[in-house]
Amino acid sequence: MTNLIDTKFISDMWPSLKQMTYLNNASTGIQPVPTINAIKEYLDNSVEAIGSFQDTLNLFKEVRTNLAKLLGGDYSQYAFVPSTSSGINSFGHSIEYPAGSNIVLCDLEFPANYIPWQNISKLYGPELRVVKSTDGAVSLDDFAEMIDENTRVVAVSQIQFGSGFRIDLESLTKMTHDNGALLLVDIIQAAGCFDTDLSKLKVDFATGQAAKWLLGPIGAGFVYVSNSIMEKVQPRFLGWWGVEQLMEFGYFDRKPLSDARKFQVGSPAMMSYVGFLESLKVLLQIPNQNREKAALSVADYLRKRLSEIDIPYYDFGRDNNSATVSCKPPDVEKLNELLMKNRIYCSVRNGRLRVSPHFYNTSADVDRLLDHLR
């Protein structure tokens, strides 16, 4: 792994990792030094009235440009929303649901990707079909049984928050489109870690935010909209950031922008995106494939060590594993309290210990964790 990631780069960018064992990136990632410095500079400048609106517009365009570099497509396909939940709602309410239509999702989803659909089902009438999971995974065959010619949306997380199961997005996209449906993907547990090109995958709509594997501040959410549906989606809510002639403040009939920014309702959380830009710049210094391989290498090492001490864990195979490992040691709540006292950070999800190493983690971090799992 030392060939993939420069250890000095890691120590310079994340000095706090020297004082703790941080394996909780599926909750929140550790922001790099440039991100913290940029936020501090922004706050210092704000009290001195330094900066212009044009500076703001330039920053936002640069964030969108870097999102496209990281996740594929063109910067015009990206826009800002407050959160993943907001992004899912913005899409879900932007399309029509003819009589007899249905929405398909699975029971592994984080609440952000099922509560909006429950609400949409009640408001507009589409049937909500829920694919049942087995041992932390869902199969494409099970999705195929639920999806039909009346399916309007298939909503899925690229990587499931609790179990770490990674769906075959390419196959699911084809299945969805073959039935005339649209695919929404929650990418919050993959973006920044996994090498993903949303454009090549032909995903219709994707959303996430910066605070996890993207290593940015909470509040910097975003959406991706495919060009194939750009003209077909009509935002339910429209604000002054989402229309043409942004700087014309007088009263006249306003038209939505023709790109993804039509989903921006109000002023983005400036301070969060100031930091997010720097996090993106840091991530882009490492090739996407190297970040993915480094994180998977540590996760695979963890699976090997868990096998040695007979602690059960989910193993979905090479094609469906992620950098998130869900295991089941005894007395998991007490164990997690002990880990935190020793500055080893994981999470408990669904009664299991969730360990989520990123590219900046090492096998030594896993060894420290395993000393407490024996």
Give a brief description.
The protein contains twelve helices and twelve strands. By secondary structure, the chain is of the alpha/beta class.
| Average pLDDT for all residues | 97
Question: How many strands?
Answer: 12
Q: What name is given to the CATH topology of the largest domain? A: Aspartate Aminotransferase, domain 2
Please state how the strands of the largest beta sheet are arranged side by side: 2-8-7-6-5-3-4
Provide the CATH top-level class of the largest domain.
Alpha Beta
Any idea what the CATH superfamily of the largest domain is called?
Answer: Type I PLP-dependent aspartate aminotransferase-like (Major domain)
Structural shape: globular
Low-confidence stretches at least 5 residues in length (pLDDT < 50)?
none
- Percent of residues in beta strands: 5-15%
Number of helices, where a helix is a run of at least 4 consecutive DSSP H or I residues: 12
Radius of gyration: 21 Å
Q: What descriptors fit this protein?
A:
single chain, about 375 residues, alpha/beta, Aspartate Aminotransferase, domain 1, Aspartate Aminotransferase, domain 2, seven-stranded mixed beta sheet, 12 helices
Secondary-structure topology with pairs:
Elements: H1 7-13, E1 21-22, H2 33-47, H3 53-71, E2 78-81, H4 84-92, E3 102-106, H5 115-124, E4 127-131, H6 140-146, E5 151-157, H7 169-178, E6 182-186, H8 198-201, E7 205-209, E8 221-225, H9 270-283, H10 288-308, E9 325-327, H11 332-341, E10 344-345, E11 347-349, E12 352-355, H12 363-371
Helix pairs in contact: 2-9, 3-9, 10-12
